[in-house]
Specification:
The complex is a heterodimer of chains A (226) and B (248). Chain A has 226 residues and is mainly β. Chain A has one domain. In chain A, strands 1, 2, 6, 10, 11 and 15 form a six-stranded antiparallel β-sheet that branches. Chain A has a five-stranded antiparallel β-sheet with strand order 9-8-16-7-14, with no helix packed on it. Chain A is elongated and about 85 Å long. In chain B, strand 8 and strand 9 form a beta hairpin. In chain B, the strands form two sheets. Chain B has a five-stranded mixed β-sheet with strand order 5-1-12-7-10. A five-stranded antiparallel β-sheet of chain B has the order 4-6-11-8-9, with no helix packed on it. Chain B has two helices and twelve strands, in the order αβαβββββββββββ. The chains are: A mainly beta (226), B alpha+beta (248). At the A-B interface, strand 1, strand 5, strand 6, strand 11 and strand 15 of A face strand 1, strand 2, strand 3, strand 4 and strand 12 of B. Strand 16 of chain A pairs antiparallel with strand 3 of chain B.
């Protein structure tokens, strides 16, 4: 009997609550004005492109004293292709103008760092020399593009990566795993957000002991937000 | 008599001119090469100095408490060290914030290295083409070697690439005449004399000479003196080596 009374009271209370809520539900459909504070965070994003042979007067110069005039190889095309020094003479220095342009678009106000390093050492292929590779670090150098650059302008060496090359000889890039490129491979630091570009020339210094062969390497650029 | 003297003088002048002319005609530059050294000047540790004020004296109560603890570390009440309620590093390792990164398509680079036809007469074997140098004097033993040979007598000369006695833009470290080069050379096989590189352009200075059919290869020691006024950074030194041969 007591139990039945309790149930009846609960049913009544629920009915009253429902009846009292109906006018409020009807009022909620009316337009009201007010202000609300919304906090949100835009995640930083970075996009980058690298364009080889990015300006019409690209190609090799130098070879002073070699007796031959350097010319870009057939794999070099404007706005793409390969940074192809063509035929070069052992023992001389060359400058490849407008070799690559790095463009970065980011909303990261802290800016970014660009690293550039070789996926491998220089790989000799035609004919295959012994040993088949040649140290990249003492052969290929980079410097920011400038009309005043010569084959003897100060330049920094490209380092061979400590990461894992992806694809044949690093044609698909470098896997750094949980790490990042070596600080010594840093080529550009930008302090803020924006859409920015920087062009690079390459220097080739062929020491007297490099074997005669065709050599190839992939230069991999990695952009990391600060 | 006077006519004979004039005739003899004229003959002498003519003979001298002929010798000079022949000497010039017999010299030829067989080959030349540039040797480039990349130099990274690293900053010196900055000398530190200044005044560090003495720390304020500890309150007397704290001194007494410390003395009591030292005298009897196990006296009560028991004390437990507590670093506060927040973890410096949460259990299970630190929180790593991922940095956004991207890797555009790699740039393929290639070249075909051809043999140097002049290598049989002049070539350079670099050993330390890139060096780091602090301020002051640094010696780089056998930075590179030079090989020379010719079928007649010859001489090897050098000068700083791009330098001129009549004036050229000076670049560290070789600079330009009349400033003395900060980079010097020695051929230890011949002498211990340290010579600043010639920076007046051609004809330069003689590095060594060679006899007919003499092949020789010697180390070049470099001495770099970085003055305190030179900013840290990346520099190159380029030296032009020239093989002048006596034509048969």
């Amino acid at each position: 009997m007591k139990m039945r009374n309790v149930t009846r009271r609960w049913t009544m209370a629920a009915t009253l609550l429902l009846v009292s809520a109906i006018p409020q539900l009807a009022a909620a459909s009316a337009t009201r004005e007010g202000s609300a504070q919304i906090n949100y965070k835009i995640l930083p994003s970075i996009k980058a492109q690298v364009v080889p042979n990015y300006q019409s007067s690209f190609g090799p110069t130098g070879g002073l004293g070699s007796g031959s005039t350097p010319a870009a190889g057939p794999s070099a095309v404007l706005g793409g292709g390969t940074v192809d020094f063509g035929n070069v003479v052992v023992g001389y220095e060359y400058l490849y103008k407008y070799a690559a342009q790095v463009s970065v678009q980011t909303n990261d106000a802290s800016g970014f760092v660009v690293y550039g390093e070789g996926a491998t050492d220089l790989n000799g292929s035609n004919p295959v020399p012994a040993p088949p590779t040649w140290p990249l670090q003492q052969t290929l150098f980079w410097l920011v593009s400038s009309a005043a650059n010569t084959a003897f302008s100060p330049a920094s060496a490209f380092n061979k990566t400590s990461g894992t090359p992806l694809g044949a000889n690093g044609s698909n890039g470098i896997n750094y795993g949980a790490g990042s490129p070596s600080p010594a491979s840093q080529i550009w630091t930008n302090p803020g957000a924006g859409n920015v570009s920087q062009g690079y020339d390459y220097e080739l210094r062929l020491s007297g002991s490099i074997p005669t062969s065709q050599f190839n390497v992939y230069i991999v650029y990695t952009v990391i937000g600060n | 008599m006077r006519r004979n003297i004039f005739a003899l003088l004229a003959l002498g002048v003519l003979a001298a001119l002929t010798v000079v002319s022949q000497a010039d005609a017999l010299q030829a530059q067989k080959a030349y090469k540039e040797m480039t050294i990349t130099i990274t000047v690293t900053p010196s540790p900055a000398p530190t100095g200044g005044y560090v004020p003495a720390p304020p004296a500890a309150p007397a109560a704290a001194v007494a408490l410390a003395a009591q603890l030292l005298a009897d570390p196990y006296a009560g009440p028991a004390r437990v060290a507590f670093a506060g309620p927040a973890w410096d590093v949460s259990p299970g390792g630190g929180l790593q914030v991922a940095q956004v990164s991207t890797q555009p398509t790699p740039v393929p680079v290639q070249f075909v290295a051809k043999a140097d036809p002049n290598a049989a007469y002049l070539h350079i074997v670099p050993h330390t083409p890139s060096v780091n140098a602090g301020y002051g004097k640094t010696v780089f033993p056998c930075a590179f070697e030079i090989f020379t040979f010719y079928t007649n007598t010859y001489s090897l000369t050098d000068w700083g690439y791009g330098t001129l006695k009549t004036g050229a833009t000076p670049y560290f470290p070789i600079e330009n005449y009349p400033t003395i080069s900060y980079l010097s050379w020695t051929v230890p096989d011949f002498s211990a004399t340290v010579t600043p590189y010639n920076n007046s352009g051609p004809p330069g200075e003689t590095t060594w000479t060679g006899a007919k059919n003499q092949s020789q290869q010697h180390c070049i020691n470099l001495t770099l003196n970085v003055p305190n006024s030179q900013p840290a950074g990346l520099y190159t030194a380029t030296v032009q080596y020239n093989l002048y041969v006596t034509l048969p």
